[in-house]
Amino acid sequence: HVPGLGRALGHGVRLITPYRVLAAALAPLVRWHLRRRARRGKEDPARLPERLGIASQPRPPGRLCWLHAASVGEALSILPLIARIKASRPALGLLVTTGTVTSATLLAARLPPGVIHHYAPVDLPQAAREFLDHWRPDLALWTESELWPVLVTALADRAVPMVLLNGRMSERSFRRWRRAGGIGRALLKPFHLCLAQTPADAARFKALGADPVEYLGNLKFAAPPLPVDEAILRQAEAMLGPRPRWLAASTHPGEEEIILEAHRRLKARHPDLLTLIVPRHPERGERIARTLRAAGLSVARRGAGEAIAPATEIYIADTIGELGLWYRLAGVAFVGGSLVAHGGQNPLEPARLGLAVLHGPGMANFAEIAVGLAAAGGSRTVADAASLGDALEALLFGSPAPRVAMAAAAAAYALSEAAVLDRVLARLAPFLDPAADPGPPPIGH
Asked: Could you report the per-residue pLDDT of 368-399, keeping only the tens digit for each?
């Protein structure tokens, strides 16, 4: 056990214990739910045992660092960190866990050689025990807002140092954790260090009991440009030709109808317009296509192998790992998840590739980045189909000067915090280097 952990957690431990008992009782239901998700394509059937903590690969010899990220966005934010750790400490084993099929597919193509991917175990006592007994991590790095009570307390029981990377805590989540009494404190006190994503996040983590909390910058600024296959890019450019086009990226349910209306408004005056849609979840592609075709539009789907024809009005790029391709083919990008109650997707991805960026008002997940990008002149906020259509009209069919200026401002802003990775690596050095001993987490008062 971590020395002093019981005194540090106090009442929170007694609150977490019923959670662990309930989780164990619900294990059969969780297994049924996983099988159901697998039938719907939301889990990998061949690797379903991994979700129950059963490893499909051997543990590498020597010290092992475990990095956990929830899904695609979190995984992308730590890829540069993973690459730097692997290059600077080749003897240190690296295990990366995520919880979605999409993230697993992406990481299979982008993880450095020798880095292991494993699906994250569900937060059940048996799954946590199986997972930790096999992998025996020497260090656990959690990303953003993933705090699972069973796994956190199991790591603390085994005296495994933990660091929260790029910690994110929305105001809504903060209020919910405050109402939960000592549970938030119980989950945060075992962490040896919390590196917050923004100063506001740092203040919330401190108020909940994390200690120490530091703000070194947002790791999302350290990500490289999204990759692209140059041969496929040239083919797509030839297929599209000179047609005016824009991209609706990472869209969520409820946004395609708004995109459809904006497209119709523009299409009446600009008949050659092509709208590109990349849904956040590719499995939605067929359903989106049916909806748009029922509305009378000519639609093609990349997931179905359909090409863009001269008559195609909307092209749905429902594939995994090709967002970098479509950003490079569009001079203007709308970032989805922002016209519905989701919190927005990452506007730095199009900004880094020199696009003028549009998004809705719902950018809570990227609030500080959205404010900074707008202040730099690299983005505009749209509220509905009418304002989206007006913004696209000005940027695509007006003078090119405003679009060029927006794109340049967006690119400059995306590069403004590139040094954050160096600062984070330096702060992690005592945890990553075998000679260093970070000691137990501080004991709360």
From this structure: 999 999 999 999 999 999 999 999 999 999 99
CB 113 within 8 A of CB 93: no
Instruction: List the catalytic residues.
Output: 74
- For residues 252-267, average pLDDT: 96
User: CA 306, 310, 315 angle in degrees (round to 5)?
Assistant: 45
Residue range 34-91, pLDDT digits in tens: 999 998 888 999 999 999 999 999 999 999 999 999 989 899 999 999 999 999 999 9
Phi, psi (deg, nearest 5) at residue 64: -135, 130
- Give the strands of the sheet with 93-98, arranged side by side: 116-119, 93-98, 64-68, 139-143, 162-167, 193-196, 213-215
Q: How far apart are CA 89 and CA 20, in angstroms?
A: 36
